[in-house]
Amino acid sequence: MDYVAVKDLKKTRSLRKKLEKERELILTKDGQPFALIIGISPGNVEESLDEVRRAMFSTAVMRARQRAVMTPAIDKEINDEILKSRKNRGLL
């Protein structure tokens, strides 16, 4: 996987060639990675976006489960969060 600086986004031809070759690029700003660029087919935009979202959701769930094992919540904390969520959604 190759890294591309934000300033290099102006070089569209070379960026496109890199993306076609690598299929994935990491976008950096001040040397720090902050975004992922992936190549997609013009006919599969929505499907590609759905796949990325599913993968990110799956990773978030896995991390939440790992945190729950490391620091289990007590019943009062769980009930407080449920109550807070219901109030925020106007259900109470």
Q: How many strand segments?
A: 3
Task: Report the principal-axis shape.
Answer: elongated
Helix/sheet category: alpha+beta
Mean pLDDT, nearest integer?
92
Strand content: 15-25%
Largest sheet: 3 strands, mixed
Q: Please list the strands of the largest sheet in the order they lie side by side.
A: 1-2-3
Low-confidence stretches: none
| Percent of residues in helices | 55-70%
Radius of gyration: 20 Å
- What's the end-to-end separation, in Å? 49 Å
| Order of helix and strand elements from N to C terminus | EHEEHH
Task: Give the domain tally.
Answer: 2
Q: Helix segment count? A: 3
Task: Describe the protein's architecture and organization.
With 92 residues, the protein is of the alpha+beta class. It has two domains: 1-39, YefM-like fold, CATH 3.40.1620; 41-80. Helix content is 55%, strand content 18%. The chain contains three helices and three strands. It has helices spanning 12-22, 45-70, 75-88, and strands at residues 2-5, 24-29, 32-38. It has a three-stranded mixed beta sheet with strand order 1-2-3.
